[in-house]
């Protein structure tokens, strides 16, 4: 079982969510089966049975028949039969008597969709057990075929193919000190056990194990790489006008790929000087919030369809936006409308491992944080462009609008004139406010679909209004600029 080993002292306080729930021993067994179905169809999970209102109720109050029904819940109430591991934890119940709490744990399903006797399918979304619609069910069934790929055996991969440094780090995460590495990899879903006709047991690495720990994952999973491309300007050009200024192909175990991609992006990002309204001092502000772009990359690595071997993850940087391309459409019940709050792991074993490595946020939190962090940086909401073959996340970096969105403070400095200004005029003030000055060409480059004449007229009008002042050694000086009049 690839389920967490919960300590009894923590069970009362662990937050209920994507992979954990607490229920009274007297909870309806059909509803309990639905929760286990929801866990199995999602990322796996555990139900702590015998807890009522965060107090130890215990299971001994149940009859022998009722306890036996719970033991057989995976075969009696779930189709197809679901393996449910039951761990009995000794406790002292609220009557001060010796008792037990039962932990019912299930693994995420690879290629099956589980249902109850009424042919109803459930999926765990956040801390809710969601009954899926007909359309969601069809998509879930399709997605199981993709999910099964991470659990496939890679016949020609051996332990010598693993990256020693990453394996050592992985061992430390779980305090593993044993000599047989299979004892660590098998229960985590990174290896499978094979028994031959004579009863001899052997192990093989899975796709998830290769992706997470192999020195050269692309030798076994073509397309398991990240490509970084940096363009000069706002569009990609070809031929003699080719404007690529930086590109890198990143390969290796997933934790190392993520670190290398993070380092590369940080080396390419610009910083801007921004006036901190609270202190009145200018401070350096990064081009994008790191938590936003890093979450986008981690999501792509964690949830991409790795069976799409003709495509790879691409990070494409333009002057005004950052695009992250992930092969495969959105998984299961996730849509562009609910993506902020709905989570489904296409690769649950990879997701669990990257969570333990510290890369993945708590389930369901990450995408919402992208929206929040972009807003805090006065940037547009992230844009998700989805088709049948890919998910593309676009983070826009409109430095002008970051300034303009501080219009409450700008308006207080400029007075009633602010609301009567047009877009270019407000943008010019925003740039002058944010950077201390604004030049004609800079303003033109930061306001799309406007002419040089419109830009010059805006600067002239602001100067006549006494909001900006022109600074130049001569009327036609190429180094002239405009700044706010103090």
TrEMBL record:
Protein known as: ATP-dependent DNA helicase RecG
InterPro entries registered for this protein in UniProt: RecG_C_sf, Schlafen_AlbA_2_dom, Schlafen_AlbA_2_dom_sf
Pfam families per the UniProt record, alphabetical: HATPase_c_4 (PF13749), SLFN_AlbA_2 (PF04326)
Signal peptide start-end: none
Schlafen AlbA-2 domain span: 16-132
GO MF terms, alphabetically ordered: helicase activity
Membrane-spanning intervals of the chain: none
Keywords from the named record: ATP-binding, Helicase, Hydrolase, Nucleotide-binding
């Amino acid at each position: 079982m690839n389920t967490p080993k919960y300590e009894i002292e923590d069970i009362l306080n662990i937050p209920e969510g994507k992979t954990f729930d607490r229920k009274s021993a007297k909870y309806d067994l059909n509803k309990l089966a639905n929760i286990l179905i929801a866990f199995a169809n999602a990322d796996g999970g555990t139900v702590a049975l015998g807890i009522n209102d965060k107090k130890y109720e215990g299971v001994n109050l149940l009859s022998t028949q009722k306890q036996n029904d719970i033991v057989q819940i995976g075969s009696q109430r779930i189709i197809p039969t679901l393996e449910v591991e039951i761990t009995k934890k000794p406790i002292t119940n609220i009557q001060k008597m010796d008792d037990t709490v039962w932990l019912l744990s299930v693994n995420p399903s690879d290629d099956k969709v589980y249902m109850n006797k009424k042919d109803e399918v459930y999926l765990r979304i956040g801390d809710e057990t969601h009954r899926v619609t007909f359309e969601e069910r069809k998509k879930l069934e399709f997605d199981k075929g993709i999910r099964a790929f991470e659990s496939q055996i890679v016949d020609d991969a051996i332990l010598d193919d693993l990256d020693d440094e990453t394996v050592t780090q992985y061992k430390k995460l779980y305090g593993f000190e044993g000599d047989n590495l299979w004892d660590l990899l098998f229960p985590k879903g990174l290896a499978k056990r094979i028994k031959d006709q004579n009863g001899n047991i052997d192990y093989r690495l899975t796709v998830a194990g290769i992706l997470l720990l192999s020195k050269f994952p692309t030798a076994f999973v073509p397309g398991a790489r990240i490509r970084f491309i940096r363009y000069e300007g706002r569009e990609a050009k070809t031929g003699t006008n080719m404007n690529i200024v930086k590109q890198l192909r990143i390969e290796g175990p997933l934790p190392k790929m993520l670190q290398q991609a993070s380092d590369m992006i940080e080396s390419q990002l610009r910083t801007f000087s921004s006036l901190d309204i609270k202190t009145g001092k200018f401070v350096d502000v990064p081009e994008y919030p790191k938590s936003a772009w890093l979450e986008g990359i981690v999501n792509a690595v964690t949830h991409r369809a790795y069976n799409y071997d003709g495509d790879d993850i691409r990070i494409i940087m333009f002057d005004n936006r950052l695009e992250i391309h992930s092969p495969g459409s959105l998984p299961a019940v996730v849509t562009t409308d609910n993506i902020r709050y709905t989570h489904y792991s296409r690769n649950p074993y990879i997701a669990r491992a990257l969570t333990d490595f510290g890369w993945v946020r708590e389930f369901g939190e990450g995408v919402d944080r992208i929206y929040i962090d972009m807003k805090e940086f006065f940037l547009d909401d992230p844009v998700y462009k989805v088709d049948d073959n890919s998910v593309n996340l676009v983070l826009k970096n409109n430095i002008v609008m970051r300034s303009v969105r501080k219009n409450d403070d700008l308006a207080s400095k400029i007075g009633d004139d602010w609301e009567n200004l047009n877009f270019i005029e407000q943008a010019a003030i925003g740039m002058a406010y944010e950077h201390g000055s604004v030049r004609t060409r800079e303003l033109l480059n930061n306001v799309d679909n406007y002419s040089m004449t419109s830009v010059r007229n805006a600067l002239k009008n602001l100067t006549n209004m006494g909001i900006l002042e022109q600074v130049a050694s001569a009327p036609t000086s190429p180094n002239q600029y405009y700044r706010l009049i103090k």
